[in-house]
Amino acid sequence: MEISVTLIKDLREKTSAGVMECKQALQEAGGDPDRASEILRERGLAKAEEKMDRVASQGLVEAYVHSGGRIGAMVEVNCESDFVAHTDEFKVLAHDLALQVAATNPLYISPEEIPQGTKATPEEVCLLAQPFIKDAGRRISDIIAEVSAKVGEKVVVGRFARFQISK
Predict the structure, then answer these.
(1) CB-hemisphere CA count at 13 Å for 148?
(2) Ordered domains of the chain (ranges, CATH)
(3) Which residues are registered as beta bridge partners of 63?
(4) Which of 23, 125, 136, 143 could bond 120 through an S-S bridge, CB–CB 3.0 to 4.6 Å?
(5) Are 86 and 126 in contact (CB under 8 A)?
(6) What strands, in cross-sheet order, belong to the sheet with 58-65?
Protein backbone atom coordinates (compact mmCIF):
# COMPACT_ATOMS: atom_id res chain seq x y z
CA MET A 1 0.00 0.00 0.00
CA GLU A 2 1.30 3.46 -0.96
CA ILE A 3 1.26 5.92 1.95
CA SER A 4 1.18 9.63 1.05
CA VAL A 5 3.74 12.09 2.39
CA THR A 6 0.88 14.23 3.72
CA LEU A 7 -0.50 11.33 5.76
CA ILE A 8 2.96 10.62 7.21
CA LYS A 9 3.47 14.32 7.99
CA ASP A 10 0.08 14.60 9.72
CA LEU A 11 0.75 11.51 11.85
CA ARG A 12 4.24 12.76 12.71
CA GLU A 13 2.85 16.12 13.88
CA LYS A 14 0.20 14.36 15.95
CA THR A 15 2.52 11.84 17.61
CA SER A 16 6.05 13.33 17.40
CA ALA A 17 7.26 9.94 16.16
CA GLY A 18 9.95 9.64 13.50
CA VAL A 19 9.13 9.68 9.79
CA MET A 20 9.99 6.02 9.23
CA GLU A 21 8.09 4.93 12.35
CA CYS A 22 5.01 6.83 11.10
CA LYS A 23 5.28 5.31 7.63
CA GLN A 24 5.68 1.81 9.04
CA ALA A 25 2.74 2.25 11.44
CA LEU A 26 0.52 3.60 8.63
CA GLN A 27 1.44 0.64 6.42
CA GLU A 28 0.69 -1.76 9.26
CA ALA A 29 -2.65 0.02 9.89
CA GLY A 30 -3.66 -0.08 6.24
CA GLY A 31 -3.51 3.72 5.97
CA ASP A 32 -5.80 4.36 8.96
CA PRO A 33 -4.24 7.29 10.91
CA ASP A 34 -6.14 6.52 14.13
CA ARG A 35 -5.02 2.90 14.17
CA ALA A 36 -1.47 4.01 13.26
CA SER A 37 -1.48 6.42 16.23
CA GLU A 38 -2.52 3.55 18.49
CA ILE A 39 0.26 1.35 17.10
CA LEU A 40 2.82 4.10 17.73
CA ARG A 41 1.49 4.67 21.24
CA GLU A 42 1.75 0.96 22.05
CA ARG A 43 5.30 0.83 20.69
CA GLY A 44 6.22 3.96 22.60
CA LEU A 45 4.91 2.55 25.86
CA ALA A 46 6.82 -0.65 25.22
CA LYS A 47 10.01 1.37 24.63
CA ALA A 48 9.37 3.39 27.79
CA GLU A 49 8.94 0.20 29.84
CA GLU A 50 12.31 -1.05 28.55
CA LYS A 51 13.93 2.09 29.95
CA MET A 52 12.47 1.91 33.47
CA ASP A 53 15.74 0.68 35.00
CA ARG A 54 17.63 3.71 33.70
CA VAL A 55 18.56 6.54 36.02
CA ALA A 56 16.42 9.68 35.79
CA SER A 57 18.84 12.24 37.22
CA GLN A 58 17.80 15.29 35.19
CA GLY A 59 14.51 17.16 35.21
CA LEU A 60 12.97 20.27 36.65
CA VAL A 61 11.04 21.68 39.55
CA GLU A 62 7.71 23.27 38.73
CA ALA A 63 5.69 25.49 41.04
CA TYR A 64 2.01 26.37 40.89
CA VAL A 65 0.31 28.98 43.06
CA HIS A 66 -3.48 29.09 42.92
CA SER A 67 -5.14 32.44 42.34
CA GLY A 68 -5.39 34.34 45.59
CA GLY A 69 -2.08 32.89 46.72
CA ARG A 70 -3.52 30.71 49.50
CA ILE A 71 -2.54 27.32 47.99
CA GLY A 72 0.65 26.38 46.20
CA ALA A 73 2.53 23.29 45.15
CA MET A 74 6.00 22.34 43.96
CA VAL A 75 6.83 19.18 42.10
CA GLU A 76 10.15 17.63 41.05
CA VAL A 77 9.83 15.68 37.82
CA ASN A 78 12.84 13.69 36.64
CA CYS A 79 13.98 12.37 33.28
CA GLU A 80 17.21 11.03 31.82
CA SER A 81 18.52 14.07 29.95
CA ASP A 82 18.58 17.83 30.25
CA PHE A 83 17.40 18.01 26.62
CA VAL A 84 14.11 16.25 27.44
CA ALA A 85 13.64 18.34 30.58
CA HIS A 86 13.41 21.42 28.36
CA THR A 87 10.88 20.04 25.86
CA ASP A 88 7.37 21.46 25.79
CA GLU A 89 5.83 18.05 26.57
CA PHE A 90 7.92 17.69 29.72
CA LYS A 91 7.25 21.26 30.88
CA VAL A 92 3.49 20.82 30.39
CA LEU A 93 3.60 17.56 32.34
CA ALA A 94 5.46 19.22 35.22
CA HIS A 95 2.95 22.08 35.30
CA ASP A 96 -0.02 19.69 35.20
CA LEU A 97 1.47 17.67 38.06
CA ALA A 98 1.96 20.79 40.19
CA LEU A 99 -1.63 21.78 39.45
CA GLN A 100 -2.80 18.27 40.38
CA VAL A 101 -0.93 18.38 43.70
CA ALA A 102 -2.38 21.80 44.54
CA ALA A 103 -5.91 20.67 43.69
CA THR A 104 -6.00 17.19 45.22
CA ASN A 105 -3.49 17.26 48.10
CA PRO A 106 -2.02 13.74 47.68
CA LEU A 107 0.09 12.38 50.53
CA TYR A 108 2.24 9.87 48.61
CA ILE A 109 3.63 9.45 45.11
CA SER A 110 2.66 5.79 44.63
CA PRO A 111 0.56 3.13 46.38
CA GLU A 112 3.75 1.34 47.46
CA GLU A 113 4.50 4.26 49.81
CA ILE A 114 1.25 3.94 51.80
CA PRO A 115 1.96 2.68 55.32
CA GLN A 116 0.33 -0.65 56.13
CA GLY A 117 -2.97 -0.22 57.95
CA THR A 118 -3.84 3.11 56.32
CA LYS A 119 -7.55 3.19 55.57
CA ALA A 120 -7.47 5.66 52.67
CA THR A 121 -7.60 4.30 49.12
CA PRO A 122 -4.62 4.87 46.80
CA GLU A 123 -6.86 6.95 44.54
CA GLU A 124 -7.41 9.40 47.40
CA VAL A 125 -3.85 9.69 48.70
CA CYS A 126 -1.45 8.67 45.89
CA LEU A 127 -0.59 11.07 43.11
CA LEU A 128 0.03 8.34 40.50
CA ALA A 129 -3.29 6.60 41.25
CA GLN A 130 -5.43 9.74 41.07
CA PRO A 131 -7.69 10.56 38.12
CA PHE A 132 -6.19 13.45 36.15
CA ILE A 133 -8.10 16.64 37.03
CA LYS A 134 -8.15 17.72 33.37
CA ASP A 135 -9.45 14.33 32.15
CA ALA A 136 -10.98 12.06 34.80
CA GLY A 137 -10.86 9.10 32.42
CA ARG A 138 -7.05 8.96 32.69
CA ARG A 139 -4.85 8.42 35.74
CA ILE A 140 -1.73 10.44 36.50
CA SER A 141 0.36 7.31 35.93
CA ASP A 142 -1.12 7.11 32.39
CA ILE A 143 -0.26 10.76 31.69
CA ILE A 144 3.34 10.19 32.80
CA ALA A 145 3.60 7.00 30.72
CA GLU A 146 2.33 8.84 27.64
CA VAL A 147 4.92 11.61 28.04
CA SER A 148 7.63 9.02 28.68
CA ALA A 149 6.66 7.24 25.46
CA LYS A 150 6.59 10.50 23.53
CA VAL A 151 9.99 11.76 24.70
CA GLY A 152 11.58 8.30 24.68
CA GLU A 153 12.97 8.49 28.21
CA LYS A 154 12.14 7.39 31.71
CA VAL A 155 9.99 10.04 33.43
CA VAL A 156 9.25 9.90 37.17
CA VAL A 157 7.95 12.12 39.94
CA GLY A 158 10.82 12.69 42.36
CA ARG A 159 8.90 14.45 45.13
CA PHE A 160 6.30 17.09 45.77
CA ALA A 161 5.11 19.50 48.43
CA ARG A 162 1.84 21.35 48.91
CA PHE A 163 1.37 24.51 50.93
CA GLN A 164 -1.85 26.09 52.18
CA ILE A 165 -2.41 29.16 54.32
CA SER A 166 -3.99 28.09 57.60
CA LYS A 167 -7.58 29.14 58.11
Answers:
(1) 26
(2) 5-50 (1.10.8.10), 58-164 (3.30.479.20)
(3) 74
(4) 125
(5) no
(6) 58-65, 71-79, 156-164
